[in-house]
Each structure stands twice: as C-alpha cells, then as structure tokens.
Amino acid sequence: MKRRIFPTIISYTLLIIFCVVFVAPILIVLYNSFKSRFYISDAPFELPDADTFVGLENYFEGIDKIGFFSAFGWSLFITVLSVGAIVIFTSMTAWYITRHKSRFTSALYYAFVFSMIVPFQMVMFTLTKTANMLSLDNPLGLVFIYLGFGSGLSIFMFSGFIKSIPSEIEEAAMIDGCSPLQTFFRVVFPVLKPTSITVAILNAMWIWNDYLLPYLLIGSEYKTIPIAVQYLKGGYGSIDMGAMMAMLVLAIIPIILFYLFSQKYIIKGVVAGAVKG
Amino acid sequence: MSLKKYFPIFVLPTLAAFLIAFVIPFLLGVFLSFTEFTTILDAQWTGISNYIKAFSNDDFLNALWFTVKFTVVSVISINIIAFALANLLTKGLKGTNIFRTIFFMPNLIGGIVLGYIWQLIINGVLKFFGVTITYDPAYGFWGLVILLNWQLIGYMMVIYIAGLQNIPSDLQEAAKVDGANRWQTLKNVTLPLVMPSVTICTFLTLTNSFKLFDQNLALTAGAPSQQTAMLALDIYNTFYSKVGWEGVGQAKAVIFFLIVAVISFTQLILTRKREVEH
Question: Cβ A274–B159 below 8 Å, yes or no?
C-alpha cells in the first residue's frame, strides 16, 4: 500500500502547483480590476483594501472608454455569421469536389490545402488593399473574407470525412428523385455533424480572438473585443490600468462561460482538428 | 452527371471568397515582392532588390534570430511539460477532469488579452528589481516563452492524453511483468507508441511559436527598440510604420512564408514516413 500512496501524493502536489500557476494570473487580474488604477502597476500582487478598493468604477470607465458592449456585439455578429457561412458553404464545396472528380476539382482541393500553410502576413497587405478596392471593408465584407481565408482547413476536414463515408445512400436518394441540394441537406449534412462541430469550434476560436485582420479591415470604424482592448493602450500615453484590468475580465468571462458549457465538444474538436490538421 | 450543373450553388460562393481572400492577394503578394510600390497600382519592377534589402536589414535579421531561438525553447519546454502532465492525468487519479479543464482553459483566451494579463504579472515581479519588461530584451524573450507555455501546454496535453489513452494497457502491464522499471516502460513502450502525437504537437507548437503576433504586440510590442520583435511583428512594422518600405515588407513576408512552408512539408514527410512504417 505504502508504495502506491506515496506517488499519488507527489502527483497531486504537482498537479495542484500547476493549477495555481494556471489560475493565478486570471485571479490577479480579477482582483486588480477592483483596485484604483494608481495602485495596480505599483503593487499588482496586493489584494484590494479599504484605501484601494473602488468597486465597479474601472468597469464603468472601461466600458465607456472602449464601447465594450458594441465591441462585444460586433465580435458576436462577425463570429456567428462567419462560422455559419464557413460550415454551410465549405461543407457543400467539399462534398461537390469530393464526389465530382475532375482535374479541376482536384486542383481546387490542392489549392485549398495549400492555403492552410500560408501565414497571414504573406497576404496581409494585398488582402487589405483588395478588400478596400472591392468595398469589403465592413463587417459583412469581413464575413466574406473569413469564408475565403478559413476555407482551407474546413474543406480539408470535411473532405477527409466525406471520403470515409460510402456514396451509396446519396446515390439512392438521387435515384429516388432528390435533387443534389436536397440530397446534400437531407442526407449528407446530418451525417457530417461531428465534423461540422469540429470545424465550427476551430473557426470560432480563431475568429473570436483574431486581432489583425479585423483591425486592418474595419478597425477604424468598428471595434471587436481584441481591437477594443488594444485600443486602450492608445498611442504614446500611459495605459489606464484600471480600465484595462476591468476590460480583460470582461473579455475573459464570455470565453470561460462558453467553455464550461461546451467543454466536451471543444476538447474533442480541438483534438480531432489537431490530428487531421 | 447531373451534379455538374450545380457547380454555381455548391462551389461558387466558397470559390469567390477564396479567390478574393487568398488566391489574388497571394499571387499579387509574390509579384509585388519584386517591385517598388506604395498603393499596388504604382508598382515598378525592381528585381530582387527588395530581398537584398530584407537580408541586409538589421531589424529583420534580429527578428529572424529571435524567432528561431524563441521557437526552439518554446517547442521543447511546452512539449516536455505537456507530456508530463498528460502522463499524470492518465493514471486514473480522482479529479482528472477538473485538472484537464483548468489546464486547457488559457488556450481559448485571445493573444491580445493574454499579452496584457502577463504584462501585469511580469512587470509586477520585475518591480521588485526596479525594472520593467521593456528594460532588457531577455525579459521580453522569457516573458513570451512563459506566456506561450501557459497558453499551449493545456492544448498539447489534451492531444497527448488522447494519444496515451490509445495505448492498450496490456502492453504496459506486459512490460511490468517482464521486470521493466517505470523509466524503461516510458522510454521503450509508451514513447514509441505516442510518436504520432509527438509529431503533431511538435508541429503545432512549432508553427504557433514561429507565427506568433498578437501576444508579441501586446506584451512588448518589440520594445526595447525592436529587439523583441518577432518575424510577424517585424513584417507588420515594415509595412505600416516605414514609408517606402512596402516592397521590402512584402519580400520579408515571402521569406516568412517559405520558412513556414518548409516546416510544414517536413512535418508532412515525417508523418507519411511513419504511417508507412506502421
């Protein structure tokens, strides 16, 4: 017995130490958000006391300064529409190019796969200019850009799954008089559900947190949450640390809530995405 | 087949977005790296002079070296710690799920927010020595390493856990019966069987470290004097804070892309080779 208990204690000790390291930074930001901004940089590890506690003042100031709720709204709008568009359109495209084999469709497939390895900086400048010229520098235009830029990984994942399912059912549906569209949405799309969830999660994580593309494209008029947080830093002036702490907390809360409710899917999706990507 | 006339519905929306968001900017980017321009339309062919300028630019060479060092250190530390945690969490201890949930969480927080969280913590610690993170490039370097470890350990751990759970437990038991100690079991049984996970995690940490931007911008923004700017940030600065350097910026971006492509292909070849062996 003794030999079994001892390693267990060591394991737990190690795990608990790591837990503290993982949670502490968030807790420190949390309690600093209730301190007066003059006491944050000077003594970030001290808990708020009677002198330094300012209640929700930092929150009101931060929300007002960066327009937090409007940023939250735009982040949500852009993420939901982009993820929806990506799941629907790329699954359709993946099905078509997997089932309708021709030189053109396989060239297309390789172009999509190729785009996965290209870093954003490669197209940063030219994409911004192209989007400006085509008047895509607005939230809906951004959704369209995300569909194009996110299509590589999504098509790769959908195609991989579609290749593994037999086409007999689809053929039977077509013989019974279903049009390709009906076949896709009634027969194929429901079968793709696990992959759709994975694709949705991977893209949502990326788009919700993306800073550079929305900043370059729509940042001067519309702020998403990452743009709003970065905006607090401003030009050369000093940062209002109080507002910064409060906004960091507000930026993290929705993510943690979403994570706790859909943890199972997120971890599964991330593992599936990693194994295939 | 009748599918063909449905091409406009099934493929066209994605294809149009793909052309505008990727194909055209990519080809234009390759072309512009050989020209001098400020607005794309005024491009003048200049051959490889942008590439020569890029490679004789101190900021770029410094960023390249900084990025390589950062990537090597991060890949090693993240994978070792993630693998160790995954090992602890596949022993059937109670509370495994709670630990997994906590370790994975930082991965969901965006780079900008992460950068400012760690700026507070690191500056708080450095305060005891009377300095800030922008005082010495070494502080920024290790700050970024700690930040990325914090962000990616949980992610890699989850992949390692999946890999470890796929190992049939009778293999490890057989090793025990044969008298292998823990270290021998780990080295000769467990590790060879999780090699696919090791390849995936190495590749993911490699590309994530190499392409890092948001965290870099928020934590140090390159300070002091661009010495902690990584490649992605240096390319951004070349485009947007140096007038007349757009062509050089694009040449740097092409070089950056080629390095990432080489890393990706190496990974692909390694994975293929291993699949054949099995």
Answer: yes
